[in-house]
Specification:
about 180 residues; alpha/beta; 3-stranded parallel sheet; two-stranded antiparallel ribbon; about 15% strand
Length: about 180
């Protein structure tokens, strides 16, 4: 159980509304790492720092947090177990785009600094393209394609994969020029 941790899609559902942030993060520290007292408090503060929240957030209840802050707490709770693998189930889908971007940057930093290994479950291929080394595309529970991220995005072999990639919005700064030229 310690080796694989899950960060759920909906942080509101994943956090106990009666448990403070410190208690939520402290539980896996006590359970898996047998930390107590000051050591537990210090590690909780360090984890809060790692996810970009101040130490005084440990005393807050989930109802006093924004959606992005709740998702950060869920990430810290997963980190507390020192997992080998963190499963991220649609971790940004319930967040607005700016907050989702912050969460993705946090996950990338944790990956770089702590050597985190993630398994992303997502429909958002832009997330996959940014964070994944390898990709497995599934359709109706069946694997349709798997491979290196760059290679798969450059030349998808399966039509379903092509449709998913084509559905990813592209930021084009020249779109207005094309509209004006067409007029």
């Amino acid at each position: 159980m310690r080796r694989i941790q899950l960060v759920y899609q909906l942080p509101d559902v994943a956090l106990n509304p009666r448990q403070t942030v410190g208690e939520a993060i402290g539980l896996p520290l006590a359970l898996f790492r047998e930390l107590r007292g000051r050591t537990l408090s210090a590690e909780t503060d360090w984890l809060l720092h790692q996810i970009g929240l101040p130490a005084d957030f440990a005393a807050r209840l989930p109802s006093a947090l924004s959606g992005g802050q709740k998702q950060r707490v869920c990430i810290a709770r997963a980190l507390a177990a020192e997992p080998d693998l963190m499963i991220c189930d649609e971790v940004t889908s319930a967040l607005d785009p700016l907050v989702a971007e912050e969460i993705l940057r946090l996950l990338r930093r944790l990956q770089d600094e702590l050597g985190m290994t993630y398994l992303f479950i997502t429909h958002d291929l832009s997330v996959v393209q940014r964070l994944a080394d390898r990709v497995m595309v599934m359709q109706k529970g069946r694997v349709v394609e798997t491979g290196d991220t760059a290679a798969l995005f450059a030349a998808p072999a399966d039509p379903y994969t092509r449709r998913l990639i084509d559905a990813v919005p592209q930021l084009r700064t020249d779109w207005l020029d094309e509209v004006m030229t067409a007029r």
